[in-house]
Every structure is written in C-alpha cells, then in structure tokens.
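Q: Is it fine to ask for two folds in a single conversation?
A: Yes, each is treated on its own. Send the first.
Q: Here.
A: Result:
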Amino acid sequence: MKSKQSMNIAFFGVGAVGVVMARALFELCHKNALGTPSFVFVVRSKERAEALFFRNPELLECSTFVEVEDFEGVFKNPDAYAKTFKNCDVLINASVPSFNLPIMELSLVFGAHYADLASDIYTKTLLKTQRFTQQDHAEAFETKGLFGLINLGISPGVSNFLIGERIAHFHNFPYKTRVKKITLALLEEICSKELVFSWAPHVAIEEISFKPAYFKNHALETLAPFSESKTYAFPYFQNSVEVYPVFQEEVISLKQSFPEVPEIRIHVGGNEVELMKNLYQLNLLSNRYCYGYKDSEISLSSIIKEVIPKMKSPEAIEEYIHNGTIKHAQFCAVADLTLEVRYPNNPKKVTSSESVGVSFSEVTSLVKTPFSGATYISYPTGIGAAVLLFHGLMYAQTHPLKGVLVTEALPQLFGPALCDVIKRELGSYKLNLFHAITS
C-alpha cells in the first residue's frame, strides 16, 4: 500500500478566509497522518500577509511567501516560477474571481488540481450562457486527470453539498420523488457597538445592486433589488427575519446540476443586508453622477464605497470580540426543498418538504485560538472550503476525480460513508448541520 505523503498547497492571495482555510488544511493533514503540509502564498506584500498569521506561528514555519508586484507577471511567465509550483498538489485562488482562469491555466501547466471560492457572476454574459467561465477548462482538466473544485466555501459550497446529498438520497427511495423547488435562505447577522463588516463593502454593494435572478418554470427571471421580500424563521435564531432575493452562484450551479428542477431561488437577510437596503432605497448606491460633478465622474456609489468603513484586520476583530464591541454574530444557510412524491399504491401526488442547512454562531469562542480574528462569515467559509477540498484531494489519490466540479456533484461521487465523514468533520469545527422533514 502506498504510504501517505504530506501535501503541497499554493494560495494566490491570502485574507481572512485564506488564513482559516490554511489552518484547517494544516490540522486535517495532521489528523489524517499526512504530516505537516507545505504552503506557498503568492502575495503582493509579504509583510501584510505574514501579519494575518499572528495566531499561527506553526503555519509560518511551513510556509513560503512569494512577493510579486502583481499576479500578471506570474501568469505571463510561468517558467520563472517552475521551482515554486512544480510539486504543488493544488493551486487555490483566494483572491478575486477575475484570477480564476489564469490560475486554472497555471494548474494545467504544472499538473496541479485547482480550487476557488467564487465565480465572476455579475455579468450579462453569465446570465445569457448560464455557465461559469471556469467550466471552459473542463475538458482540459479531464484530459489531464485533474480536478477543479469551484465555488467552495459555506454558501456556495457546503450548502450545495448538503443539497446534492439529499437529492442523491432521493434516487434510492422505493418511490418516485421529484424536486419541484429549491429555495435557499441566508442569514448574516451581527450585534456590535460599531459598524463592522464581515466582508468587503464594495463586494456587498456589487451583489446587492445587481438585479436578483432566479428560475421559475425553467426560465431565468430577474427582479428589482429588494423587491418581493418575505419573512423567514431561521433555525437556532430567536427572531424572524425579512429576507430579500439576491443572485449568487447557487442559482446557476444548482440548475446545471439538477435541470429537472423548475424553480430555484435564493434570499438573504440580516442587519448588514438591512444597511445595504437603506442605502439602496436612499439612492446612495446609484452610479449616476452627482450634480455638478459630472466632469470628474464622481457618483454617489463611488463616494459610498470610499467613505464606508472597510473590513477590519483579524487583530482588530479579535480585539473587538475581546472588549465586547462585537457581542455575537450568526450565519445560517437553509435550503428548503419542495418535493412531489408518488407512492406505488397511491395514484395521487403527495407534496412533501425537507430542509437542510448549516449554522455558525460561535465566533466569540474563537478568540485566542488559531482561528482568532476570523469573522462569522470568513470562518465557516474557510472551514467549508478546506474540508471539501481536503477530502477531494484524498479521494483523488485512489479514485478518479477529474474535470471542473461544483460541490453538489460530490456526494454522488463520494458515496454515503465519505459524505458522513465530511459532515462530522464540519461539525467538529462548530458548524451546526441540520436536516428536517417538515411535511
């Protein structure tokens, strides 16, 4: 039997999610007797990148930081970095989605697997093609026997995985079960004395300002932002929340994976979303020029992006939690599945409902741990990405796993036993998974 070897992992960019992801991969390697992994971080500032690991001296000991003026130099001249990447098992885009394709091309050059956290979805092209740009490289990855796991994280990511697992179970039922509707609801709630964003405000503004898209009767429809809201009761959260339609990767991804499902929607709520709603309804996210400033091309949106508080550093987040500025926070992703069941001896169709999801609310317990400084969004995102990627890499050592894959495709490939291992691993990192048959 071939002995297990430690992993060589490369990150392009590093931030709050990347640090969590690297720490979790470090722990997973040790837990599975793989020894200490080696990390390469391609960054623009080694000093700023190393500062993010202020609670992780062990990671610094097994990490190399490659400081570059910009990533384009790496993409245009991969031969100059052959020594850096030639033994890497996986290249991870922990930066912006616009780097997905060039990093994928590097993966193909160096024979490494690939992973990313998000896609570039806020374009008319994606709405028209209903296809992620990373999928253009599917054939090349398959030919080389490599996999590309795209849209990893918590939502998209773990949420898709849980949906895929349930639908895989439906195929094994002794009666016909059809999924008529998938509706996702996301909660992003933080209670703090100061305005603290869990993600980059300009990203939130871009997402909120984009017309929400959803599938109804298999057709892609759009809505005005913050229209058609509804009240939703999230598990493990005391109050009902007003949630609003948004467009995220899951809408396209789930429709690709389960084309037979006629309706797919996603909503989001919480106090960060309420702030964005207020800005939007006050017309402060408008791209129109301010009166008297047309020549200088100053828009209301550009002013808001400039003056709104930026994301805090992990050290600042740790201090906010330590001194009580951040009192508590919660993330939750719930997928409600509406089913149509046909029993063998009953000619009538029976409607049934199930819910699967994940919740995280223990951000304050991370203080002074290796994950200290993570937010209630970056922590579950990094954990979800790391667990799914790690088990993908392990699975690929003994089974064929190739092509460009979305996470809801993994349960059918992995099988029930490995899916159970993954869910237990997520639970060990304080992510609360739940499943309920509601009718």
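Q: Second one now.
A: Result:
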Amino acid sequence: MAGSVALPGMVQADPLIIDETALANDRLTPGIYPSAPMPEGFSVPSEPSHPPVEIDWSVGLKGSYTASSAGNAFVTTLKPAFTATHQGVRTDLVLDGSAELARAPDGSFVVDALSLKLDGTTMLGSDTTVSGTAGLRLTQDLPGLPGANPLVSVPPQVLTGTLGGGLDRQFGRFNVGLKGNLERTLYGPTTRRDTGLTDNGQQNVWEGDGTLRLGFAATPIIEVFGEAGLGRDWFDQRGADATSRSLRAGIAGQWNGIWSASASFGVGQHDFDNAGLTDITTQLYDASITYSPDSTVSLTAALATAITPTGADTGGTAKVAHTASADASYTINSWLRLRASADWGHARIEGSGETETSHGLGAGADYRFNSRATLSADYGYVHRDNSLSGTFDSHTVSLGLTVRR
C-alpha cells in the first residue's frame, strides 16, 4: 500500500481524533480569532490603535549676553511649551501653548510672552478644505535691554486676540481661496521716566481683513494667480480709523518637491476716515523661494511689504515696512545641525517723518544628545539706523538647552 511508513519509535496521530489544543492555538492567532480558523493569506491585520489626542511638551532654558553701542546685558529665559494634536478621519486639530519667563538685566523677573493657539482643518471633500484658527497672545518687552527707549522704565503689556477662517476649493485647473481674519489688540500703560504713567488706550484697535485669491494651473508646476484684499482698522479713540485695499498678481511654482517659489506685485491703499490725515498708497512686493534637494538641506529667501498700525509709544498714523530675509540650514548627521540667517528692513512711520533701516546676520548650531535633549548655540548681529534715536549696533551670543517629550 502506497503512503508514508511509520518509523520505529514514532507514534502517528489518529486523523479521526481532533486535537483541541492545536485548534485553540489557531483561534488565538492574531487576525483570526474569534473567527473560525482560515488560511493565513485570508486574515485581515488589525490597524494599530492610537490615542485620540497626542501631547508633546518641551522646556527650554537659555542664557543670552548682548554687547552693544548702548551697553551690555545678560538675560536668562525659561520657556515651557506644549502641543496637543488630534488627527481625525476628516478633521485635524492642533493646540499650541507656550510661556516665556525672563530675568531682565535689572534683576526683575518678567513674563514676557504667553500664547495659546488652536488650528483646525476639515476636508469637506476631495477638492474642498475648510480651516480655522483662534489664538491669544500676551507680550511685554524686557526693561533695560540695550537699544530700547531709555526713557521707558516699564514697557507696556500687549494683549492680542485672533479669530480667522478660510475656504479653499478646486475647480479643475482653477482654485479659489477665501480667507478672513479678525484681530483685537489692547495696549497697557507705559511707565516713563519723563512723564510717569502714560496711557496707550488710543492705540487699542480692532483689525479686520479678508482676501480672495484665484489661481490657474497653467502647467503641472506653474500657477498664475490674482489676489484682492479688503481691510478695516477701528481704533477705540477715533482719529486713525482707516480702510485698506490691495490688489496684486503673481506666479507660483513647485518642481519635484525640490524647488518652490512665488512672486507677486501690486498696489496697496490705506485711506483714513479723518480728512486731515494723508492717505497712503504704496507698491506691494512679495516673493519667496525655497530650495530643499533632500531632508538635510533647506535654503529660503523672502521679500515682503506690509502696512500696519504703529503700536505703543510711537507717533504717526501707520507703519509701512519693507523686509527681506534669508535662512539656511544643513543637517550634517543625526546629532548636529547648522543654521544661518540674514535680514534687511526699511520702515517709515507715516505722519511723523520717522524712518528706520536695519540689517542683521545670524549663525547657530543644534547638538542633539539624544531624542529628548538638544543643546543650541547662537550668534546674532543687529544694526539699526533710526532717524530719531540714531545708530545702534549689537552682538549677542546665547546658549540654551531644550528637553522635550
């Protein structure tokens, strides 16, 4: 009879007897239990579970020493921060919070920054995205810093609240973007050595603006777009209320994830309700380019123009600023990254005759001890030439340690 032959000393299992132990083990195999046993190729692996909210946190401690034409100073800063992220099927939410506690040059401790921001994005469909943001930020400049107004002994606190939203929609080769933003800024009093307590309530302002952007994909990598903007400034004390309008056209492109660039040119108007104030009309330039051939190299350059309120302790009706910046980073290996930056700016305060030109350079390195601790060293140079306060130069070196989750 053909078939297998039992070897001496071996006991063959009776095929009519069911091995319940083996059956139980099969039913406990991942991807099979509690279903009946089946070939492994037909089992469906279960997806890894993840918590509904993932929380990351970090704590940074940094010391900075500044030597300048206006004196020297040493500042110590402690910065705790956290990020809570929820990734849903259609909606993603990110909550960021941070605080900065600094020891000022005069020895006092100041909470110079507090911030809380919530960002959300929802996919309504394959071609429609809705986004929203809400945030609060409290800032205060450190007293006694080199280059600050020598007549200000206690700078004002500035509280800013922001609420915004956007809608992006694609129609074939066309895409439409609609964005709106509402911002409220409150300025606290300033303590001055010449006039004592100075109220900045006249600078408290509501700022609302909206933009409509229409783009056309001329090629798979090049987009031509036009953008129109409308804004409004409402001050608590009438005087500088204004309506702003902007219109610009530009081109944007992305190539193979290595190059991305955009450039636009337009005109902006800032019309004051008060007929006694001179309206502002200026050309608007915006451009940016990024080169990142791989994950280790990143080069970025940008140019921008903006019209904003002047802020506290500043005369005039509005600030027109033109800025240019460049940043570079190179990750040598898994534990060392090098950084460099440069910037230039020119600003004028309308209605006061004040102008300022500035430029700066920076360099830094990040050394990672492990996945949780990073040591950072930085150097920065700043030059300012202000028509009212004169020339200011500073050199700052800093060393900081950041521990993260």
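Q: Anything structural to flag on that second result?
A: Two points. The chain has one domain: 54-404. The chain has one helix and 21 strands.
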